[in-house]
Amino acid sequence: MPERLRRLALVVVIALGAIAMLFPFWWTFITSITPGAGFSITPQLWPDDPSLSAYERLFTERPFARVIGNSLLLAAITTIVQLFTSATAAYVFSRLPFRGRGVVFAVYLATMMVPLQVLIVPLFAQLRTFGLINTYLGALLPTFASAFGIFLLRQAMNQVPRDLDEAATLDGAGHGRIFWQIILPNIRPALATLTIFAFMGSWNSFLWPLIVLRSPELQTLPIALAALQGQYTTAWDVVMAGSVISVLPMLALYLFAQKYVIQGVASSGIK
């Protein structure tokens, strides 16, 4: 096959893949601006009489602004704390030798194999003992440490030459200065990648907030979206409007940090 035909075939395949990936988002947006839209097997590709009434209903009939604020608050705190705990722990596993370091790291990574459903009951019992049910802190505590984040940043730190550490040590720098001024600036792609993963994980979290947050004023966005679906009838334009809003922060964050994502994943060794 000539080179030109191979490139044309590659472009066609990529274009078809892009259309297949973007089509659900387009359908969601079109449904959100179609007043009175119902569920249909045949998708509507363009609205007959576009309107933003669904978005208006979303914010006037429900405390959706408070819901978005709750999700943003929890996601921001989770991301910041995960970055700190993951970076400090990764520095210990990467730069501070101690007996049994490999075993401890392997055991810590093994926790990634345990699904959240297994931990819900003991976590709920512990938080109830401390009186943290139906509080922001109760929703946040289990998210403060991330085995995946430690693994990601440790792999990135292992790529930083140790000669930089030795040179800084000769200049009188301690572990704190090496960590903040040498290591962190050199693993910014991995930090950006973890930022996206941590924010996305908290933003899309449904099961744990559903269990621990009881009051309507503490609801997060995924729970509020699930509540939009009625038992017998559903205003699909309102549901899709909420879905569009839920995508926007993640899209903005990814566009802001996209240049670091591929670099961070590639340097971590993850396939």
Describe this structure in words.
- The protein has 271 residues and is mostly helical.
- Helices cover 72% and strands 0% of the residues.
- The radius of gyration is 23 Å and the shape is globular.
- The protein has helices at 3-32, 53-60, 64-95, 101-110, 116-129, 136-140, 147-158, 162-170, 175-186, 188-203, 207-212, 221-227, 236-268.
- It is built from 13 helices and no strands.
- Helix 1 (3-32) crosses helix 13 and helix 7 runs antiparallel to helix 10.
- The protein has two domains: 1-51, no CATH class; 62-268, MetI-like fold.
- The model has no long low-confidence stretch (mean pLDDT 85).
- InterPro entries: MetI-like (IPR000515), MetI-like_sf (IPR035906).
- It is a multi-pass membrane protein.
- Keywords: Cell membrane, Membrane, Transmembrane, Transmembrane helix, Transport.
- It comes from Microbacterium awajiense.
Features:
single chain, 271 residues, mainly alpha, globular
Find the count of extended strands (DSSP E, 2+ residues).
0
> Fraction of residues in helices?
over 70%
- Gross CATH architecture of the largest domain: Orthogonal Bundle
The H-and-E topology, N to C, reads as HHHHHHHHHHHHH
Q: Tell me the β content.
A: under 5%
Distance between the termini: 30 Å
Average pLDDT metric: 85
Output the CATH class name of the largest domain: Mainly Alpha
The CATH homologous superfamily of the largest domain corresponds to MetI-like
Briefly note the CATH topology name of the largest domain: MetI-like fold
Choose one word for the global shape: globular
Task: Quickly give the structural class.
Answer: mainly alpha
* pLDDT < 50 runs, ≥5 residues: none
Task: Indicate the radius of gyration in whole angstroms.
Answer: 23 Å
